[in-house]
From TrEMBL:
Residues 17-27 have a biased composition (Basic and acidic residues). SUPFAM superfamilies: TrkA C-terminal domain-like. GO terms for biological process: potassium ion transport. InterPro entries: AAE_transporter (IPR050144), KhtT (IPR026278), KhtT-like_N (IPR058776), RCK_C (IPR006037), RCK_C_sf (IPR036721). Residues 1-42 are annotated as: Disordered. Residues 106-190 form the RCK C-terminal domain. This is TrkA domain protein. It comes from the Bacteria. Pfam families: KhtT_N, TrkA_C. One of its GO terms (molecular function) is monoatomic cation transmembrane transporter activity.
Length: 191
């Protein structure tokens, strides 16, 4: 039996067994959305508790060394741990990435509240821009989007200048509005 550190968890009142919750749903009782809380664990890290809309309980302990402990609790007894996984920092990051909402483009890097997106656009060997200077694309002037970096094999070239020579196999990191980035992709994909 493990010792609990930090304040006791509070769980919503109401039906606790899955079949009781299912019966209550049929009566038109509205289920609430997911709830998240955090508890500092001195000397260890922070515990994050998630209660889903179906009153299922998950927790993550974020250890100070970057490791994570992911635990899932039984539906019929929210204090009984059904599964506990120890994850390294990189494993936790990979899982977190898989849990993020999918976007329309698998190469989408980020979407901000400002309406800007960053996208990875590969430059094919048959592109008309292969071997030409970045400035020749007139990308910023035509689309308003900017190439902020170029990934070439194992190198990253930040802030490429207009005299930077593009090569097939490069991946261009482009930032702008969704429309601007889509227009930039159309220009860069010309053969």
């Amino acid at each position: 039996m493990s010792e609990r550190i930090g304040p006791a968890r509070s769980y919503p009142s109401g039906p606790s067994r899955p079949e009781e919750r299912e019966r209550e749903r049929g009566k038109g009782i509205r289920m609430t959305g997911p709830r998240m809380s955090s508890t500092p664990l001195p000397g260890i890290g922070v515990q994050y508790d998630l209660t889903t809309r179906d009153d299922r309980h998950l927790s993550v302990v974020a250890h100070r060394d970057g490791a994570r402990t992911l635990s899932a609790y039984r539906g019929d007894d929210p204090d009984a741990c059904a599964l506990s996984l120890q994850l390294t920092g990189p494993e936790a990051a990979t899982l977190a990435e898989a849990l993020l909402p999918t976007h329309k483009s698998p190469s989408l890097l980020h979407n901000t509240d400002l309406g800007l997106v960053a996208d990875r656009i590969p430059l094919s060997a048959t592109s008309m821009w292969n071997g030409r200077l970045l400035g020749e694309t007139r990308l910023r002037a035509e689309t308003g989007a900017s190439i902020v970096a170029v990934l070439r094999r194992t190198d990253a070239i930040p802030s490429p200048r207009p005299d930077f020579r593009l090569a097939g196999g490069d991946t261009l990191i482009v930032i702008g509005t969704r429309e601007g980035v889509d227009a930039a992709a159309a220009i860069l994909e010309q053969e």
